[in-house]
Amino acid sequence: MLKFIGRRLLFLPFVMFGVTALLFGALQFLTPEMRASLYIKDPRQLSALEQVIEKYRLRDPMPVQYWIWLKQVLRGDLGYSETAKMPVAEAVRAFFPATFELAVLAFLPILIIGVYLGTLSAVYKDRFIDHLTRFIAITGYSLPSFVLGLLLLMIFYGRLHWFPPGRYSLDVDLLVHSEAFRHYTGLLTVDTLLNGQFAAFVDVIKHLILPATTLIYISLALLLRITRSSMLEELGKDYIRTARAKGLPGPVIVKKHALRNALIPVVTLSSLLFIGLLGGVVITETVFDYPGIGRWTVVAAQQLDVPGVLGSSLLAAFLFVLANLISDIVYALVDPRIRIG
Protein backbone atom coordinates (compact mmCIF):
# COMPACT_ATOMS: atom_id res chain seq x y z
CA MET A 1 0.00 0.00 0.00
CA LEU A 2 2.84 2.39 0.86
CA LYS A 3 4.52 1.67 -2.50
CA PHE A 4 1.23 2.36 -4.26
CA ILE A 5 0.86 5.72 -2.49
CA GLY A 6 4.51 6.53 -3.19
CA ARG A 7 4.06 5.95 -6.93
CA ARG A 8 1.06 8.26 -6.95
CA LEU A 9 2.95 10.96 -5.03
CA LEU A 10 5.76 10.89 -7.59
CA PHE A 11 3.33 12.01 -10.29
CA LEU A 12 2.03 15.02 -8.35
CA PRO A 13 4.91 17.44 -9.16
CA PHE A 14 4.57 16.68 -12.89
CA VAL A 15 0.81 17.24 -12.83
CA MET A 16 1.14 20.53 -10.95
CA PHE A 17 3.89 21.60 -13.36
CA GLY A 18 1.54 21.03 -16.29
CA VAL A 19 -1.29 22.92 -14.59
CA THR A 20 0.85 25.94 -13.71
CA ALA A 21 2.37 25.96 -17.23
CA LEU A 22 -1.12 26.09 -18.78
CA LEU A 23 -2.24 28.88 -16.48
CA PHE A 24 0.92 30.86 -17.12
CA GLY A 25 0.55 30.31 -20.85
CA ALA A 26 -2.86 31.98 -20.69
CA LEU A 27 -1.16 35.11 -19.30
CA GLN A 28 0.94 35.39 -22.44
CA PHE A 29 -2.08 36.74 -24.31
CA LEU A 30 -1.63 39.95 -22.27
CA THR A 31 0.99 42.53 -23.18
CA PRO A 32 3.82 43.26 -20.70
CA GLU A 33 2.18 46.60 -19.91
CA MET A 34 -1.16 44.94 -19.14
CA ARG A 35 0.50 42.35 -16.90
CA ALA A 36 2.56 45.01 -15.13
CA SER A 37 -0.60 46.96 -14.32
CA LEU A 38 -1.85 43.92 -12.34
CA TYR A 39 0.85 44.55 -9.74
CA ILE A 40 -0.01 48.22 -9.26
CA LYS A 41 -2.58 48.92 -6.55
CA ASP A 42 -2.87 52.70 -6.96
CA PRO A 43 -3.91 54.00 -10.45
CA ARG A 44 -1.77 57.08 -9.77
CA GLN A 45 1.31 54.85 -9.94
CA LEU A 46 0.74 53.78 -13.57
CA SER A 47 3.82 55.82 -14.51
CA ALA A 48 5.85 53.09 -12.80
CA LEU A 49 4.86 50.47 -15.39
CA GLU A 50 8.37 50.21 -16.83
CA GLN A 51 9.84 49.70 -13.36
CA VAL A 52 7.42 46.83 -12.74
CA ILE A 53 8.23 45.33 -16.15
CA GLU A 54 11.94 45.44 -15.34
CA LYS A 55 11.44 44.11 -11.82
CA TYR A 56 9.48 41.04 -12.95
CA ARG A 57 11.32 40.77 -16.28
CA LEU A 58 8.08 40.64 -18.26
CA ARG A 59 9.87 41.08 -21.59
CA ASP A 60 12.19 38.12 -21.06
CA PRO A 61 11.71 34.82 -22.93
CA MET A 62 8.70 32.80 -21.79
CA PRO A 63 10.67 30.05 -19.94
CA VAL A 64 12.51 32.70 -17.91
CA GLN A 65 9.26 34.48 -17.11
CA TYR A 66 7.63 31.20 -16.11
CA TRP A 67 10.46 30.38 -13.69
CA ILE A 68 10.26 33.83 -12.08
CA TRP A 69 6.46 33.59 -11.83
CA LEU A 70 6.63 30.08 -10.36
CA LYS A 71 9.02 31.26 -7.66
CA GLN A 72 6.57 34.05 -6.82
CA VAL A 73 3.72 31.54 -6.56
CA LEU A 74 5.76 29.27 -4.28
CA ARG A 75 6.42 32.28 -2.03
CA GLY A 76 2.68 33.01 -1.96
CA ASP A 77 2.95 36.16 -4.08
CA LEU A 78 -0.04 35.93 -6.42
CA GLY A 79 -0.52 39.62 -7.00
CA TYR A 80 -3.14 42.04 -5.74
CA SER A 81 -6.90 41.56 -6.14
CA GLU A 82 -8.76 44.78 -6.88
CA THR A 83 -12.13 43.15 -6.20
CA ALA A 84 -11.12 41.92 -2.75
CA LYS A 85 -8.94 44.99 -2.02
CA MET A 86 -6.18 42.76 -0.65
CA PRO A 87 -3.41 40.45 -1.93
CA VAL A 88 -4.74 37.35 -3.67
CA ALA A 89 -3.21 34.99 -1.09
CA GLU A 90 -5.02 36.84 1.69
CA ALA A 91 -8.26 36.81 -0.32
CA VAL A 92 -8.03 33.03 -0.72
CA ARG A 93 -7.47 32.65 3.02
CA ALA A 94 -10.44 34.96 3.67
CA PHE A 95 -12.97 33.35 1.30
CA PHE A 96 -11.98 29.68 1.26
CA PRO A 97 -12.98 28.81 4.88
CA ALA A 98 -16.59 29.84 4.15
CA THR A 99 -16.69 27.60 1.08
CA PHE A 100 -14.99 24.75 2.95
CA GLU A 101 -17.54 25.02 5.74
CA LEU A 102 -20.44 24.84 3.30
CA ALA A 103 -18.84 22.04 1.27
CA VAL A 104 -18.27 19.78 4.28
CA LEU A 105 -21.77 20.38 5.65
CA ALA A 106 -23.28 19.49 2.26
CA PHE A 107 -20.94 16.65 1.23
CA LEU A 108 -21.42 14.32 4.19
CA PRO A 109 -25.23 14.04 3.71
CA ILE A 110 -24.73 13.73 -0.07
CA LEU A 111 -22.38 10.78 0.41
CA ILE A 112 -24.31 9.01 3.17
CA ILE A 113 -27.81 9.49 1.73
CA GLY A 114 -26.68 8.89 -1.85
CA VAL A 115 -24.99 5.55 -1.16
CA TYR A 116 -27.73 4.40 1.22
CA LEU A 117 -30.70 5.25 -1.01
CA GLY A 118 -28.90 4.12 -4.18
CA THR A 119 -28.22 0.74 -2.58
CA LEU A 120 -31.80 0.36 -1.35
CA SER A 121 -33.10 1.33 -4.78
CA ALA A 122 -31.08 -1.43 -6.43
CA VAL A 123 -31.90 -4.09 -3.83
CA TYR A 124 -35.63 -3.30 -3.92
CA LYS A 125 -35.86 -2.66 -7.65
CA ASP A 126 -39.29 -1.56 -8.94
CA ARG A 127 -40.70 -1.20 -5.43
CA PHE A 128 -41.80 1.98 -3.65
CA ILE A 129 -38.34 2.96 -2.40
CA ASP A 130 -36.95 2.55 -5.92
CA HIS A 131 -39.65 4.78 -7.42
CA LEU A 132 -39.10 7.39 -4.70
CA THR A 133 -35.33 7.35 -5.23
CA ARG A 134 -35.69 7.72 -8.99
CA PHE A 135 -38.10 10.62 -8.48
CA ILE A 136 -35.53 12.38 -6.25
CA ALA A 137 -32.79 11.69 -8.79
CA ILE A 138 -34.77 12.93 -11.80
CA THR A 139 -36.04 16.11 -10.13
CA GLY A 140 -32.67 16.91 -8.59
CA TYR A 141 -30.83 16.35 -11.86
CA SER A 142 -33.23 18.44 -13.95
CA LEU A 143 -33.96 21.26 -11.51
CA PRO A 144 -31.58 24.26 -11.88
CA SER A 145 -29.85 25.14 -8.63
CA PHE A 146 -30.85 28.81 -8.83
CA VAL A 147 -34.53 27.85 -9.15
CA LEU A 148 -34.38 25.57 -6.12
CA GLY A 149 -32.41 28.19 -4.19
CA LEU A 150 -34.90 30.93 -4.93
CA LEU A 151 -37.82 28.67 -3.99
CA LEU A 152 -36.20 27.84 -0.66
CA LEU A 153 -35.51 31.53 -0.03
CA MET A 154 -39.09 32.51 -0.80
CA ILE A 155 -40.51 29.86 1.53
CA PHE A 156 -38.08 29.66 4.44
CA TYR A 157 -36.88 33.27 4.48
CA GLY A 158 -39.44 35.40 2.68
CA ARG A 159 -42.50 33.78 4.28
CA LEU A 160 -41.35 31.91 7.40
CA HIS A 161 -38.28 34.07 8.26
CA TRP A 162 -36.40 31.00 9.49
CA PHE A 163 -33.18 30.77 7.49
CA PRO A 164 -31.69 34.05 6.18
CA PRO A 165 -29.13 34.42 3.36
CA GLY A 166 -25.52 35.47 3.90
CA ARG A 167 -23.05 33.92 6.33
CA TYR A 168 -24.20 35.51 9.60
CA SER A 169 -26.42 38.24 11.04
CA LEU A 170 -25.37 41.81 11.83
CA ASP A 171 -24.82 41.16 15.55
CA VAL A 172 -22.61 38.16 14.76
CA ASP A 173 -20.75 40.25 12.19
CA LEU A 174 -19.90 42.77 14.91
CA LEU A 175 -18.84 39.91 17.19
CA VAL A 176 -16.50 38.13 14.76
CA HIS A 177 -14.81 41.41 13.80
CA SER A 178 -14.30 42.49 17.40
CA GLU A 179 -10.95 42.23 19.14
CA ALA A 180 -12.41 39.89 21.77
CA PHE A 181 -13.24 37.20 19.18
CA ARG A 182 -10.33 34.88 18.40
CA HIS A 183 -10.15 33.25 14.96
CA TYR A 184 -8.64 29.82 15.50
CA THR A 185 -9.53 28.08 12.22
CA GLY A 186 -11.49 30.55 10.07
CA LEU A 187 -14.46 28.15 10.24
CA LEU A 188 -17.16 30.02 12.11
CA THR A 189 -18.99 26.88 13.20
CA VAL A 190 -15.81 25.87 15.03
CA ASP A 191 -14.54 29.28 16.15
CA THR A 192 -17.86 30.37 17.67
CA LEU A 193 -17.89 27.25 19.85
CA LEU A 194 -14.23 27.69 20.82
CA ASN A 195 -15.05 31.26 21.86
CA GLY A 196 -18.01 30.03 23.89
CA GLN A 197 -20.53 31.87 21.67
CA PHE A 198 -23.27 29.26 21.28
CA ALA A 199 -25.88 31.80 20.08
CA ALA A 200 -23.49 32.88 17.30
CA PHE A 201 -22.93 29.20 16.41
CA VAL A 202 -26.70 28.69 16.01
CA ASP A 203 -26.89 31.83 13.85
CA VAL A 204 -24.11 30.56 11.54
CA ILE A 205 -25.83 27.17 11.21
CA LYS A 206 -29.13 28.86 10.32
CA HIS A 207 -27.41 30.72 7.49
CA LEU A 208 -25.82 27.50 6.21
CA ILE A 209 -28.99 25.40 6.06
CA LEU A 210 -30.54 26.74 2.84
CA PRO A 211 -27.41 26.77 0.63
CA ALA A 212 -26.41 23.35 2.01
CA THR A 213 -29.89 21.95 1.31
CA THR A 214 -29.73 23.25 -2.26
CA LEU A 215 -26.35 21.63 -2.85
CA ILE A 216 -27.44 18.37 -1.23
CA TYR A 217 -30.56 17.97 -3.35
CA ILE A 218 -28.90 18.94 -6.63
CA SER A 219 -25.70 16.91 -6.12
CA LEU A 220 -27.47 13.92 -4.58
CA ALA A 221 -29.25 13.12 -7.83
CA LEU A 222 -26.17 12.04 -9.78
CA LEU A 223 -24.71 10.02 -6.91
CA LEU A 224 -28.03 8.19 -6.49
CA ARG A 225 -28.12 7.20 -10.15
CA ILE A 226 -24.50 6.05 -10.25
CA THR A 227 -24.85 4.01 -7.03
CA ARG A 228 -28.10 2.40 -8.18
CA SER A 229 -26.80 1.43 -11.63
CA SER A 230 -23.51 0.15 -10.22
CA MET A 231 -25.30 -1.94 -7.59
CA LEU A 232 -27.73 -3.37 -10.15
CA GLU A 233 -24.78 -4.41 -12.31
CA GLU A 234 -23.05 -6.12 -9.39
CA LEU A 235 -26.19 -7.86 -8.15
CA GLY A 236 -26.63 -9.47 -11.56
CA LYS A 237 -23.14 -11.02 -11.70
CA ASP A 238 -22.30 -14.70 -11.28
CA TYR A 239 -20.50 -14.40 -7.95
CA ILE A 240 -23.63 -12.90 -6.37
CA ARG A 241 -25.77 -15.77 -7.70
CA THR A 242 -23.21 -18.21 -6.31
CA ALA A 243 -23.31 -16.52 -2.91
CA ARG A 244 -27.11 -16.77 -2.89
CA ALA A 245 -26.94 -20.42 -3.91
CA LYS A 246 -24.66 -21.10 -0.96
CA GLY A 247 -27.31 -19.69 1.37
CA LEU A 248 -25.58 -16.48 2.44
CA PRO A 249 -27.98 -13.95 4.04
CA GLY A 250 -29.10 -11.07 1.84
CA PRO A 251 -27.53 -8.30 4.01
CA VAL A 252 -24.17 -10.10 3.94
CA ILE A 253 -24.29 -10.43 0.14
CA VAL A 254 -25.15 -6.75 -0.29
CA LYS A 255 -22.77 -5.23 2.28
CA LYS A 256 -19.72 -7.50 2.07
CA HIS A 257 -19.75 -8.44 -1.61
CA ALA A 258 -21.86 -6.33 -3.97
CA LEU A 259 -21.49 -2.93 -2.29
CA ARG A 260 -17.72 -3.18 -2.00
CA ASN A 261 -17.32 -3.63 -5.76
CA ALA A 262 -20.07 -1.16 -6.62
CA LEU A 263 -18.32 1.61 -4.70
CA ILE A 264 -15.46 1.98 -7.21
CA PRO A 265 -17.31 4.35 -9.62
CA VAL A 266 -18.95 6.01 -6.61
CA VAL A 267 -15.52 6.91 -5.21
CA THR A 268 -14.61 8.67 -8.45
CA LEU A 269 -17.82 10.65 -8.54
CA SER A 270 -17.65 11.50 -4.83
CA SER A 271 -14.16 12.98 -5.11
CA LEU A 272 -15.21 15.10 -8.09
CA LEU A 273 -18.34 16.27 -6.27
CA PHE A 274 -16.35 17.30 -3.23
CA ILE A 275 -13.79 19.20 -5.27
CA GLY A 276 -16.61 20.90 -7.15
CA LEU A 277 -18.00 22.05 -3.81
CA LEU A 278 -14.59 23.18 -2.56
CA GLY A 279 -13.89 25.06 -5.76
CA GLY A 280 -16.87 27.25 -4.98
CA VAL A 281 -20.40 26.56 -6.14
CA VAL A 282 -20.87 29.80 -8.00
CA ILE A 283 -24.64 29.90 -8.50
CA THR A 284 -25.55 28.73 -5.01
CA GLU A 285 -23.17 31.18 -3.34
CA THR A 286 -24.51 34.00 -5.50
CA VAL A 287 -28.20 33.21 -4.87
CA PHE A 288 -27.71 33.08 -1.10
CA ASP A 289 -25.24 35.98 -0.98
CA TYR A 290 -22.76 33.61 0.63
CA PRO A 291 -19.22 35.06 0.75
CA GLY A 292 -17.36 32.03 -0.57
CA ILE A 293 -14.54 31.68 -3.04
CA GLY A 294 -16.91 30.88 -5.92
CA ARG A 295 -18.77 34.17 -5.64
CA TRP A 296 -15.48 36.08 -5.35
CA THR A 297 -14.15 34.37 -8.48
CA VAL A 298 -17.23 35.41 -10.46
CA VAL A 299 -16.90 39.02 -9.33
CA ALA A 300 -13.18 38.94 -10.16
CA ALA A 301 -13.91 37.60 -13.65
CA GLN A 302 -16.62 40.20 -14.27
CA GLN A 303 -14.24 43.02 -13.29
CA LEU A 304 -11.25 41.56 -15.18
CA ASP A 305 -9.37 40.96 -11.95
CA VAL A 306 -6.80 38.63 -13.53
CA PRO A 307 -4.74 37.95 -10.34
CA GLY A 308 -7.93 36.99 -8.50
CA VAL A 309 -9.09 34.60 -11.22
CA LEU A 310 -5.58 33.14 -11.52
CA GLY A 311 -5.32 32.59 -7.76
CA SER A 312 -8.68 30.81 -7.53
CA SER A 313 -7.76 28.72 -10.60
CA LEU A 314 -4.52 27.61 -8.96
CA LEU A 315 -6.43 26.65 -5.82
CA ALA A 316 -9.00 24.67 -7.83
CA ALA A 317 -6.23 22.88 -9.75
CA PHE A 318 -4.40 21.96 -6.55
CA LEU A 319 -7.61 20.65 -4.98
CA PHE A 320 -8.41 18.60 -8.07
CA VAL A 321 -4.97 16.97 -8.06
CA LEU A 322 -5.27 16.27 -4.32
CA ALA A 323 -8.73 14.74 -4.82
CA ASN A 324 -7.39 12.41 -7.51
CA LEU A 325 -4.69 11.23 -5.12
CA ILE A 326 -7.21 10.58 -2.35
CA SER A 327 -9.58 8.77 -4.71
CA ASP A 328 -6.70 6.55 -5.90
CA ILE A 329 -5.92 5.64 -2.29
CA VAL A 330 -9.58 4.88 -1.58
CA TYR A 331 -9.67 2.76 -4.76
CA ALA A 332 -6.84 0.68 -3.40
CA LEU A 333 -8.61 0.23 -0.07
CA VAL A 334 -11.88 -0.80 -1.72
CA ASP A 335 -10.28 -3.07 -4.35
CA PRO A 336 -6.78 -4.39 -3.42
CA ARG A 337 -6.22 -5.56 -7.02
CA ILE A 338 -5.65 -1.94 -8.06
CA ARG A 339 -2.47 -1.75 -5.95
CA ILE A 340 -0.83 -4.29 -8.25
CA GLY A 341 -1.20 -2.05 -11.34
Descriptive report:
The protein is mainly alpha-helical. The protein folds into 2 domains: 2-81, no CATH class; 96-302, Orthogonal Bundle (MetI-like fold), CATH 1.10.3720. Helix content is 74%, strand content 1%. The protein has 15 helices and 2 strands. It has helices spanning 2-27, 32-37, 49-56, 62-74, 88-123, 128-142, 145-159, 170-176, 188-194, 198-235, 238-245, 250-278, 282-287, 293-302, 306-334, and strands spanning 80-81, 86-87. α6 (128-142) crosses α10, α7 (145-159) packs antiparallel against α10 (198-235) and α10 crosses α12. The chain starts with a helix and ends in a 7-residue tail after the last helix.
CATH topology of the largest domain: MetI-like fold
The CATH class of the largest domain, by name, is Mainly Alpha
Tally of strands: 2
CATH superfamily of the largest domain: MetI-like
- The CATH architecture of the largest domain comes to Orthogonal Bundle
- The geometry reads as globular
Spatial gap, N to C terminus:
12 Å
Helix proportion: over 70%
Structural class: mainly alpha
Strand order of the largest sheet: 1-2
What is the alpha-carbon Rg in Å?
24 Å
Content of β-strand: under 5%
As residue ranges, the low-confidence spans are: none
